[in-house]
Amino acid sequence: MKNASEGNAGKAGPEIRVEEVSLRYETRGGVVEALADCSLTVPGGSFACLVGPSGCGKSTLLDVVAGLAPLQDGRIGIDKRPDGGPARLAVVFQKPALFPWKTVEGNIVFGLETQGIPRAERRERARRYIDLVGLNGFENAYPHELSGGMAQRVGIARALALQPDALLMDEPFAAVDAQTRALLQEELRRITAHSGMTVLFVTHDVSEAVYLGDTVFVMSKRPGRIIRTVSPSAEQRDRSSGAFARITSEIFDLLAHSAPSKATHGESA
Asked: How far is residue 146 from each of residues 122, 173, 182, measured CA to CA in Å?
C-alpha cells in the first residue's frame, strides 16, 4: 500500500458512544441475552479494538453500531459531520462478499454508483484505492482469480473508496494466512493513522488488538459488557518488546476468567 487515504486527510472522524446497550433474542431454547448494559466511547479519529471470548457479542455490538441489528435498550451516539450531516459509515466484514461477476474495479465502484457519483470520479477513486491497497495490475481481475488476502484488500478498498468518516470492521483478517494477516495489519495501521477516520475493529486475536488499537475494549463472556479498557503505550504495541508480551498475557488471563460482573464495568488498565 502507498500513503494513507486522501479523502479524510486532516479531518478527525466522529466520536462513537455506546451507552448501556442491551440486546436479547429468541431461540427455540428460550431467550438469549447477548449484550447487557454495554458501554464504551471511541474518541474521534482513533482506532479502537473490541476483543472478547467467542460468542460474547462482539459482532452483535458492531452490527448495532452499524445499524444492522436493532437497538433494543440503550443508546448509540455518533457525532455528526462538520456540515451537520450524519457521519458516513462503512463496514468491512470477515468475508469480503464480492460480486463474482464484477471485476476488482467494478466491485470497488459499486457503492459509488449507488451514491450517484459521476463515472469519471468513480473510476479515479477506484484507481486511487487500488493503488492504495497494492492491487495495481489486478483492476480487471475477477474474485475467483484472487487469493483470500487480495479479495480482502478489495473489500477494504471498496469501503475506503466511500471515504467514510468511520470504519467498522468485523474480524476482517480472520480467514487469511498468518503472513498475509501481518501485512494487512501493517497496511491498515498505516492508512488509518493518517486518514482521520474513526475505526472500531472487532477481533478475537488479542495480539492483533494490542498491535492495532489506540484503545482495546475487553468484553466479558455472554451477556457481553465491557469489563476493561486498555490504552496500550507505544512500547506495549511493539511486537518485539517484553511489554507487548506482558499486556497480551494480561488480557488473555482476563478473558480466561471473565465473568459478567458490573463491579468491573468500565475499569481501566
From this structure: 22, 15, 18
The CATH number of residue 265's host domain is 3.40.50.300
- Model pTM score: 0.86
For the chain, the average pLDDT equals 87
Helix (H) or strand (E) holding 191: helix 178-195
Tell me, yes or no, whether 94 lies in a domain.
Answer: no
Q: What H or E segment, with its residue span, contains residue 30? A: strand 30-42
More confident residue, 213 or 152: 213
Cis ω for the linkage preceding 53 (within 30 of 0): no
**Would residue 82 count as lying in a domain?**
yes
Backbone angles phi, psi at 62, to 5 degrees: -60, -40
Q: Distance between terminal CA atoms of the chain? A: 34
Place of cell 457481553: 224
Residues 125 and 222 in one domain: no
Q: Is the Cβ–Cβ distance between 39 and 75 less than 8 Å?
A: no
CB-based contacts of 207: which residues, under 8 Å, 6+ apart? 239, 244, 248
As a whole number of angstroms, the distance between CA 117 and CA 134 comes to 24
Are 55 and 151 contained in the same domain?
no
The CA-atom distances, in angstroms, between 68 and each of 39, 64, 229 are 18, 6, 25
